TrEMBL record:
<dbReference type="GO" id="GO:0003723">
    <property type="term" value="F:RNA binding"/>
</dbReference>
<protein>
    <recommendedName>
        <fullName>Glutamate 5-kinase</fullName>
        <ecNumber>2.7.2.11</ecNumber>
    </recommendedName>
</protein>
<keyword id="KW-0963">Cytoplasm</keyword>
<dbReference type="InterPro" id="IPR036974">
    <property type="entry name" value="PUA_sf"/>
</dbReference>
<dbReference type="InterPro" id="IPR002478">
    <property type="entry name" value="PUA"/>
</dbReference>
<keyword id="KW-0641">Proline biosynthesis</keyword>
<dbReference type="GO" id="GO:0004349">
    <property type="term" value="F:glutamate 5-kinase activity"/>
</dbReference>
<feature type="binding site">
    <location>
        <begin position="226"/>
        <end position="232"/>
    </location>
    <ligand>
        <name>ATP</name>
    </ligand>
</feature>
<dbReference type="GO" id="GO:0055129">
    <property type="term" value="P:L-proline biosynthetic process"/>
</dbReference>
<dbReference type="InterPro" id="IPR001048">
    <property type="entry name" value="Asp/Glu/Uridylate_kinase"/>
</dbReference>
<dbReference type="GO" id="GO:0005829">
    <property type="term" value="C:cytosol"/>
</dbReference>
<feature type="binding site">
    <location>
        <position position="164"/>
    </location>
    <ligand>
        <name>substrate</name>
    </ligand>
</feature>
<dbReference type="InterPro" id="IPR015947">
    <property type="entry name" value="PUA-like_sf"/>
</dbReference>
<feature type="domain" description="PUA">
    <location>
        <begin position="289"/>
        <end position="372"/>
    </location>
</feature>
<keyword id="KW-0028">Amino-acid biosynthesis</keyword>
<comment type="pathway">
    <text>Amino-acid biosynthesis; L-proline biosynthesis; L-glutamate 5-semialdehyde from L-glutamate: step 1/2.</text>
</comment>
<comment type="function">
    <text>Catalyzes the transfer of a phosphate group to glutamate to form L-glutamate 5-phosphate.</text>
</comment>
Length: 380
């Protein structure tokens, strides 16, 4: 883990401009025409900037939406399909179209690309997370630009990222990125929806939690993509909490982002950056169950230095195994932490309410351990 002082806007933008490993996320609306079809000129303009950065030695990952939008034309649809099976079929056709344009565009600059399609399950399971991490790191080591997208052809509404904004933050953590750039069709965060009178662009955010609480933003879905400013702010929150600086701006401004110009909105990272393992627990792992902590245990966990002991747990919910991620809730039902369980769910009920000495006497030495050790616990 590293510690650093809170950065100024100039320092944040300089960090992004000089970043060694960068994740760039581009939304469907930035790659399509007003009618929703893939805009080859927009794709080419984006590739031009990213390829030049890659040739300068920047390790670049592109998280690109647009597969479903790219499938509109070939399948003869006038608008984005609304049912899951047709969306999946459209994505299956469109992903190939999208990749063809990326491969051709980057090849003109002598840059190779590789396709990575992820589902939420790939990041929720530790082994799959590590596999994705190894593949992405090896591609970067080989000088390849990974083109990442959610596997829309297989993902369902029940198990999906929901938008590529969140996916981009998980990818940024996977590759230990130095910066995240979120590209959209709006040139940054505004004090109110941009169409409202008096709305002003926010150039720098030092405290994203304050912004989320006090600035009104839209969360509507466009005709060609999913998400909105709400999802981008949530993505920025995850990234800066992971110690990654973020710039949010329009795709037209991507070139000047790499020059450190004052475009869009820059978000300062938190001073502390956790290990890759703790970041996985906090942001990617999908909880399999819930442990309900009493008031004293909840306060101890929130203090940041305590494990969750059986003596302070009043209820176990769900069916999970040792090593699985679980929620830690207070008695009011609030999620206060996530962690990795030390025991199977079926083993826990007999341990509840007992301290370490009692557990040794009643169940044996192997049960005289925290239900969730503090090293495997991340506060929310």
């Amino acid at each position: 883990m590293t510690e650093r002082q809170m950065q100024t806007e100039h320092e944040v933008r300089s960090c992004v401009a000089s970043a060694h490993t960068v994740v760039v996320k581009v939304g469907s609306s930035s790659l399509t025409t007003p009618s929703g079809h893939l805009d080859v000129d927009k794709v080419g303009a984006l590739v031009e900037v990213l390829a030049e950065a890659a040739k300068r030695g920047v390790r670049m990952v592109l998280v690109s939406s647009g597969a479903i939008a790219a499938g509109f034309g070939p399948l003869g649809f006038d608008a984005r399909p609304t049912d899951v099976s047709t969306q999946q079929a459209t994505a299956s056709v469109g992903q190939g179209v999208l990749m063809q344009h990326y491969e051709t565009g980057f090849a003109r600059h002598g840059v190779r690309v590789g396709q990575i399609l992820l589902t939420a399950d790939d990041t929720m399971h530790a082994s799959r997370y590590r596999n994705a991490q190894r593949t992405l790191q090896r591609l970067l080591d080989l000088g390849v630009v990974p083109i990442v997208n959610e596997n829309d052809a297989l993902a369902t509404n029940e198990i999906r990222f929901g938008d590529n904004d969140r996916l981009s933050t998980l990818v940024a953590n996977l590759v230990r990125a130095d910066a995240l750039v979120l590209l959209t069709d709006i040139d940054g965060l505004y004090t109110a929806p941009p169409f409202k009178s008096g709305a002003k662009r926010v150039g720098f955010v030092s405290d994203i939690d304050w912004v989320i609480d006090h600035i009104s933003v839209g969360g509507t879905v466009s005709g060609v993509g999913s998400g909105g400013m709400v999802t981008k702010l949530e993505a920025a929150r995850i990234a800066v909490s992971s110690g990654i600086p973020v710039v949010l701006t329009s795709a037209d401004n991507i070139a000047v982002v790499f020059e450190g110009a004052s475009t869009g909105t820059a978000f300062a990272p938190a001073p502390r950056r956790d290990s890759a393992r703790r970041l996985w627990i906090g942001f990617a792992a999908g909880p399999r169950g819930t442990l309900i902590a009493d008031k004293g245990a909840a306060e101890a966990v929130l203090g940041g230095k305590a494990s969750l002991l059986a003596a302070g747990v009043v209820e176990v919910r769900g069916d999970f195994s040792a090593g699985d991620p679980v929620w830690i809730d207070d008695e009011e039902g609030n999620h206060i932490a996530k962690g990795l369980s030390s025991f199977d769910s079926e083993e826990m009920p007999n341990t509840l309410g007992h301290d370490t000495t009692q557990l040794k006497r009643l169940l044996g030495e192997e049960y005289a351990h925290p239900l969730v050790h503090r090293d495997n616990l991340v506060l929310l």
